[in-house]
TrEMBL record, chain A:
Gene3D superfamilies: P-loop containing nucleotide triphosphate hydrolases (3.40.50.300)
Family as reported in the entry's similarity comment: Belongs to the ABC transporter superfamily.
Listed GO MF terms: ATP binding
InterPro entries: AAA+_ATPase (IPR003593), ABC_carbohydrate_import_ATPase (IPR050107), ABC_transporter-like_ATP-bd (IPR003439), ABC_transporter-like_CS (IPR017871), P-loop_NTPase (IPR027417)
Name the record gives this protein: Ribose transport system ATP-binding protein
PANTHER family: CARBOHYDRATE TRANSPORT ATP-BINDING PROTEIN MG119-RELATED, GALACTOFURANOSE TRANSPORTER ATP-BINDING PROTEIN YTFR
Claim: 4Fe-4S is one of the keywords in the record: no
Domain ABC transporter: 23-258, 262-513
Alphabetical keyword list: ATP-binding, Nucleotide-binding, Repeat, Sugar transport, Transport
Record has Nucleotide-binding as a keyword: yes
Organism in which the protein naturally occurs: Ancylobacter amanitiformis
SUPFAM superfamilies per the UniProt record, alphabetical: P-loop containing nucleoside triphosphate hydrolases
Ranges annotated as spanning the membrane: none
From TrEMBL, chains B, C:
Lineage per the UniProt record: Bacteria, Pseudomonadati, Pseudomonadota, Alphaproteobacteria, Hyphomicrobiales
Principal place of residence: membrane
Organism annotation: Ancylobacter amanitiformis
Keyword Protein transport: no
Membrane association type: Multi-pass membrane protein
Transmembrane segments: 19-39, 51-69, 76-97, 103-122, 172-198, 229-251, 257-275, 282-302, 308-324
Subcellular location field: Cell membrane
Keywords: Cell membrane, Membrane, Transmembrane, Transmembrane helix
Name of protein: Ribose transport system permease protein
Highest taxon of the lineage: Bacteria
Amino acid sequence: MNAAPVSQPVSPMGAGPGSVPVLRAERLAKAFGGVSVLSDISLDIRPGEIHAVIGENGAGKSTLMRLLSGYLRPSEGALWMDGAPIAFQGPADAQAAGIALVHQEILLAEALSVTENIFIGRELGGFGRLDERAMREAAAAQLAEVGCKVSPRARVGDISLANRQLVQIAKALLGTHRVVIFDEPTAVLTHDEVDPLLDIIVKLKQRGVAILYISHRLDEVERLADRVTVLRDGRMVGTYDAEGLTPHRMASLMVGREFASLYPARVARDIAGPVLEIAHAQVPGFVHDVSLTLHKGEILGLAGMIGAGRTELFEGLLGLRPASFGAVRLYGKPAHFASPAQAAAAGIGYLTEDRKGKGLLLGERLAPNLTLAALDRVHPLAGLDLAREGQLLERAVASYDIRLRSRDARAGQLSGGNQQKLLLAKVMLNEPSILVIDEPTRGIDIANKSQIYAFIQSLVREGRSCIVISSEMQELIGLCDRILVMRSGRINGELSGDAMTESNVALHATSSSAAHEKTSGRNAHG
Amino acid sequence: MADLAAAPPRAEPGWSIGWGDAGPFLALAALIAIGFLVNPDFLSANNIANVVTRSAFIAIIAIGATFVISSGGLDLSVGSMAAFITGVMILFMNWVAPSVGTAAIPLGMAVALVTGIACGLMNGAIVTLGRIEPFIATLGTMGIFRALITYMSDGGTVAIDRSLRDAYRPVYFGDVLGVPIPILVSLAVALVAAYVLYRTRYGRRCVAVGANEDVARYSGISVARVRTMAFVIQGACVAIAAICYVPRLGAATPTTGLLWELQVITAVVIGGTALRGGRGRIWGTVAGAVILEFIANLMVLSDFVSEYLVAAVQGVIIIIAMLIQRMSKR
Amino acid sequence: MADLAAAPPRAEPGWSIGWGDAGPFLALAALIAIGFLVNPDFLSANNIANVVTRSAFIAIIAIGATFVISSGGLDLSVGSMAAFITGVMILFMNWVAPSVGTAAIPLGMAVALVTGIACGLMNGAIVTLGRIEPFIATLGTMGIFRALITYMSDGGTVAIDRSLRDAYRPVYFGDVLGVPIPILVSLAVALVAAYVLYRTRYGRRCVAVGANEDVARYSGISVARVRTMAFVIQGACVAIAAICYVPRLGAATPTTGLLWELQVITAVVIGGTALRGGRGRIWGTVAGAVILEFIANLMVLSDFVSEYLVAAVQGVIIIIAMLIQRMSKR
Amino acid sequence: AEKKIIAVSIPAADHGWTAGVVYHANAAAKEINKAFPDIEVIVKTSPSASAQVSAIEDLSATRKLDALVILPHSSEELTTPVKAIKDKGSFITVVDRGLNDPKIQDLYVAGDNIAVGFNTAKFLVEKMGGKGNLVVLRGIPTVIDDERIKGFQDGIKGSDLKILDIQYANWNSDEAFKLMQDYLAKYPQIDAVWANDDDMLLGVLEAIKQSGRKEIKFALGGNGMKEIIAKVMAGDAVTPVETPYPPSMIKTAIYLTAAHFAGHAPVRGSFKLDAPLITKANAAEYYFPDSPF
Ligand SMILES: Nc1ncnc2c1ncn2[C@@H]1O[C@H](COP(=O)(O)OP(=O)(O)OP(=O)(O)O)[C@@H](O)[C@H]1O
Ligand SMILES: Nc1ncnc2c1ncn2[C@@H]1O[C@H](COP(=O)(O)OP(=O)(O)OP(=O)(O)O)[C@@H](O)[C@H]1O
Ligand SMILES: O[C@@H]1[C@@H](O)[C@H](O)OC[C@H]1O
Ligand SMILES: [Mg+2]
Ligand SMILES: [Mg+2]
């Protein structure tokens, strides 16, 4: 290890007011029901710095952030603000002290409008009367600031996950703050939505706000951070100056050993005839006349920005929302799926992008979650085979590297990334021959990402086929044989081989002038 | 971006009634049309006035229930609370009447309001401090209020003093420019309630608590306080309804308000408020209360149904009204 | 965030009763202790047997309700459905008795079961196909069933034929090795139900639908089918309760089963099932039903309370039982 | 000597008449417990038939009942359970609503529901010259209600009195008020109203008063509620008569049962209270200003 931990806090920004930490944590520890999750964590955050916190899934990052912002109370240790000890009874206290948290999981009331959500608890207006206009205008401004294009009047339940994340950020940023904590704010955002957000973060920093930033996208960390704190298994590895800390080095610090490469080497495979053909798909309001073909053994990528309609296309295909098709063919035969159950029976698995709302029963234990979509397969007899279920869970925990502190945990108590792995294991339990993965690595740490990529590759090697919907361009480029780029409900371009570059994807995702075209480089599959 | 186009702008709830909320009014219109076909007398001014006046109690109580339900609660005690408040009010008025004369009436009204608020506070406290499922908590207080009125009346009738009867009568039977007073009162209550629910901070928070308790709590809202307040509003509304009710029959009995809670909840739900909270519709609730009363009226005015089957037909109509309400949402 | 609020890990529900679910049993124990202090006869074998036997009806129906409620539904029609099924069963038995003699009894039981299942199917269809709030849908069918029994009985009584009375009597009054038959029946129903809810695919799906409808849908579960099935189970349970009920009262009247729905829901909730779905506790429900019956029994055996105030004391005890239940969860 | 225990099981006070029953039962208990040191009267109310079955089971499971005085919620449902008590050797007094098997009872005290309907009908036939339009409000669907209606229908048989409408108002004054409003809206000409219980009559009178309609010659009830008796005493034109169905019959029954033990005189048999018309002439005899009913 050549980047030595910074033992004595030194300002990365040079001298100035920044040298007095706004917020300081001293030997924090947190245990849930006797299970220790964090121990001996000390760090400080200074005005005008971006302090990144990284670590593997389940390392304790989110837990630490909740301790700092009053959502949880530490089991041990103390917090100091401006040099004075402070204890928060709840998030409201921390907010009053100027600490805002953007949650990893979306925490909004779906039944309410965007404006209402943003202003819950601090509505504008005098004498009891609400000032709707002022709130709407402020909300619109705030949304514009974070680059969110939804109407302030829209119901949160009706907007996409990515937009919900932006609304949540807009909500957190309302008002003035001294410390803003971002817990994986970009996990659900595409390339083009990330930039405006990072700009805002830099702006906040320039205003002297202290920023805590968590992300598994280490390139972002490299770009933004002044200092980086690394957690592993609930303990501090250390706090480092960001200078000269490469993503590769960060990854190695996180996992505690030398980290190899992210994307598995491409292996030549036979990509055979079509397995799934969709012609003239229409999903009212979202998808307009989309046709695509997936081949046996192929990894087909679907790129696009928020609202491109990728998710809706497949929700329509599975009978989860109203849709019509010119034709759907499975292995050459006409097919129609009225429900995900029918699709599953036909060998199509779908992993939702919304793990909290549509993927997992957060209050349930892990085994029932794992087997929920494959009950008939796992339990062929009338009664449940709990022993078998237990084994399956063991196997899933091992093969997907799900990290849990307690076997008795509820799904909602897993860290975000571990929830995602559980969800993947759940979908795979049906052994689909065609797998549609919507945002496969959302919130997954870098080591596990490479595992998931290897896993997807092993699937197609077995002759299965895979559609990957992803907001991470590199992921698509590194993994896919072919990429379709969607824009405003239409396919706006197809890329393969060397033509799969970030700039090409971005071009087709944003520009309407780039008419639907097929661009393939030399190394097209073969 | 597609986004702006994608989310269809929804009408803001408020004074004006948006299209998406037209359901209960459509159901009401359909019912009135059927009523007219069945018996033209249905639309006689007299009948309409009677029915709407009658619906005032349920409407006023249901307006309170709109707060409780949209905040994620439920109050089963309203019917027996109404009986209890009526009893307390009458006993009080009878007690002071000999010394203060008809001034007993306004005093009695004040006592009723205070009693209602206290009852609501009790419900709210049990639900929030005791952290007991509202269904169970208010089922408990329902028994308590019902027993208290039975006790107060010795199981019989608590009747208002003759000397007050005539002075008080106009509160139910009187009218202003031809509009019966209970209708005016319920309109006033609805206006105030709509203002509070749609236009004030409290209303916003009430719905937020019902929509997602965690979000509300983390946004610094005192969930317990908001919920308790909703029960207090409910108590006040029950008191207002009781105040209008007393002059009608001039008495409280152990059967006063029996099963009103079911009618109240039905009115609220038919009106478009979500039973799981997070959405409240004051005018819809009022329409719901009127619908229920019209259905009952229609049963009597039509000659089709054997007296034994009235409840069945009512059940069917309620389900159909909900279907109309539901369909108009697409 | 749900996980912040999430409860600490709880023991696996199942045959054995975990610690976290001990609440209703603690409340029951507390009640029995109080009962003994109030009147030592409370613990006489005879009294205990009576009370537990009696609680069988509500327990059996409430076991069905545990399915409906944990799948996110609610059924208000159970009481009038019980009356209706009883009526159908008795009419049928009386009709065939002249030709088949006491074989009318098993035939009648079969008819009751089929009727119950049909009623449940109807409730389920209205809720799932009609997409109507279960509260309203079953309030509607509650009226329908109630009217049908009123119609069938001409407003009076449908009584079982004398010739069948004695043959049927043992179903309620008989015992096996000293254990009254209704207790055995309800234990059997509870065992089967616990198996279905905790140990079958259907049970998993039922709770999943109640916990999060979207997750269930995305997991390939037919939400409508699971919900409908829960109502069907409820109907079958009501039928079983009715079958045990007939010999006790020997008749169905328009007031049979009145307000049972409230008792049933109370038993389910006291037992630890979440009223908003996603968590069902069969043994808790059984304990809840026994608790309610013990409370009523205590009211009869104690002499403290004015007859008028019985309902109030019951209300208070229910709230306290919930508090005990709640507290044991910390 | 051992105390003789008399258990009294009655419906809970759910409307005026039953409230009267509870009042008189409690009063009887108090008086007898005081007057006869070796008799103990225990009163229990139950809100439904099945609760009543439970209550008598509970009472007999925990004490030896020397006598049970019962006003059954409904006849069918209580027959078997009361028989079980009888088989344990208790003296059984049945009040008002009879059991299916009269052999069970040692003593029966009741009003005459058929007569309540019949006498009212006869009065109307006579006063209205045998013709006119009637509307009727009935109570909770039960045997009593049925009997009254049946008696009434028998009473108008052969006359030209026509029942325009008959609906349930559940012995509840609010529901009766609404129902009467609706009758008034529906029928332009109503000559007389019969509510088969005085609770309902109160609502009916209020609705008529509000409508201002003058053609209604009679509005009659039944049961002998003190407010209505007062009207009869005052010579009210619309409600000039009343039929008694006094809730105090429970007190009569309890006293008779106590007499069986205290008086060493057997009191077995049937005791049917008449339901003669109460008119201005004899109303005072039926007026109990202190009763809640
Ligand atoms: N409420 C809780 N009860 C029990 N265990 C919990 C709870 N919340 C978190 N944990 C456990 O604490 C550990 C750390 O979780 P945390 O969410 O902080 O991880 P993280 O570093 O944010 O991971 P990720 O990158 O996946 O988001 C995990 O093992 C998790 O299961
Ligand atoms: N229920 C809904 N009602 C109205 N609009 C909706 C609804 N759900 C989503 N939208 C809108 O539809 C558009 C498409 O949604 P979505 O973001 O899921 O597409 P996508 O291509 O899958 O994008 P991504 O997966 O990158 O977020 C978005 O603009 C979203 O706001
Ligand atoms: O309860 C009944 C009462 O209401 C009716 O009026 O008279 C007979 C009683 O049994
Ligand atoms: Mg996290
Ligand atoms: Mg998407």
